[in-house]
Amino acid sequence: MSLERARSTFRATSHPATPRGLRRVPLHTRHHGAGTIELIQFRPAGKVTAEQLGRARIQIFWDGETEPSVDLPLGLFFGSGLGEVCVRSLAFSMERGRYQNRLPMPFWRGFELQVDGIKGQLELAIGPPRFAAGEAGTLHALYRAAAPPRPDHDFEWLGTKGAGKLVATVLTVVPPDPEVKRWWEGDLRSYSDGRRTPSLHGTGLEDDHLGGWSNTFFTNPFTLPMHGEPGAQIIEREGEQYNARVTLYRLWPGLRFMGSIRHSLEHGNRNQVQAFYAGAVFYYLLAGGPQLEEVDLLDLGDPASRRSHGFRVKGPRQWASLESTFEGREDIWLLADQTLAHRGAATFTAKVTARNRGCLLRRLYDQHAARQRARVLVDGTYLADWYTVERNSESRWAERDIFLPPSVTKGKASLTITLEPRPEAPPWSAAEYRLLCTKGH
């Protein structure tokens, strides 16, 4: 579909039926008591420009907060950073003169909501509480802009501590000149709970937004339930396509974190392309929820640490010094440490907090050899096979976790952990093991 055809379709689109339960409220409104905002709808007064939607702002304060948890330019809150375009996602939408956000927004004591910088009609659908206090998080939505981002540093949507789930992002990219290309080659990098290896590592902006190759991605605006590129400005000069500006969104079923999260994007390959980046991130944060706490560390390169943990390994083993980097954001920093590769079973004892809801065993290792695999036993009970399929001979350091459920951790002061490499797999590599346990509700 051409850009002009997409615009024509947008102009011809009829409004959806008015959702049930909507009621009009002032642009600055307060509500007392518990409940759930099921829908926020805004109707601008007349035609609006991209600049107006960029300047207008929505703020929401939950349960007596003094600082807003939701604080965004109005357009981004409804899925677009390039003005009024056609957006039809599960979370938010835009039709001509009508914008909606459908992310559930629980609250327990009340909320204050304010729309500034624009005239229009605000409507809310408020339902009953879905969860008891402490069982669900409140919605947070933050704005980030960089013009341009720092060289060698990602554009970061979110960097925060706590427990919650990231559910959506909206991104706008405006190059300084249409001839500035390849900013879309930047990879998505998402880290949770302090790992130095990304939990998600993308392969380019167009791939990470499920749009395919760049030579077709930016020429055809589209909007789908979980991802879309609802707005793009394309310039052609002497038959060659130039990508002048674009806005995109991506919904996630929930990127969970219990200790922290960093969610970011390269601006061009290895952060070498300069452009204006702006975006919104939507996430739920659970106050007082289960959070990770590091309770023990076995440093294999330290003889005292091996002795204190009763570390022993059967059969042949090989020690090596490794100086390398991690993949992703950490690929510019060298780490030097000792690694141990072995084919026989390794056993050690780790401290654990008795009142936990399960723990993560985190391994730092050399990923030069792919398909490392070992049986994991806790206090003699087989738990699972720990399998790492990846291989990287350049950025060789990696961190991976395996979850130890409360059925084998709760109520204990220590755990005896055994790792038995599978005979068909390469030697099992490790430099250290960390035990992180959950605390809280």
Topology:
Blueprint: H1 3-12, E1 22-25, E2 28-32, E3 35-44, H2 50-55, E4 57-62, E5 70-73, H3 74-77, E6 87-88, E7 92-95, E8 98-101, E9 105-107, E10 110-116, E11 120-127, E12 138-146, E13 155-161, E14 164-174, E15 188-192, E16 200-201, H4 205-208, H5 214-217, E17 222-223, E18 227-237, E19 240-257, E20 260-265, E21 276-285, E22 291-299, H6 303-308, E23 312-313, E24 317-324, E25 335-342, E26 346-351, E27 359-366, E28 372-378, E29 381-388, E30 397-404, H7 406-409, E31 414-421, E32 428-430, E33 432-439
Parallel strand pairs: 5-12
Antiparallel strand pairs: 1-11, 2-10, 3-8, 3-9, 3-11, 4-5, 4-10, 6-7, 7-8, 12-21, 13-20, 14-19, 14-21, 15-16, 15-20, 17-18, 18-19, 22-33, 23-26, 24-25, 25-32, 26-31, 27-30, 27-33, 28-29, 28-31
Counted by DSSP, the helix tally is 7
* Rg: 25 Å
Query: Uncertain regions: pLDDT < 50 for 5+ in a row?
Result: 1-16
Give the overall average pLDDT: 91
Helix fraction by DSSP (H/I, runs of at least 4): under 10%
Name the beta content range. Answer: over 45%
Shape: globular
Give the beta-strand count: 33
Q: Strands of the largest sheet, in order across it?
A: 2-10-4-5-12-21-14-19-18-17
Number of domains: 2
Structural class: mainly beta
- CA-to-CA gap between the ends? 51 Å
Q: What's the story with the biggest beta sheet?
A: 10 strands, mixed
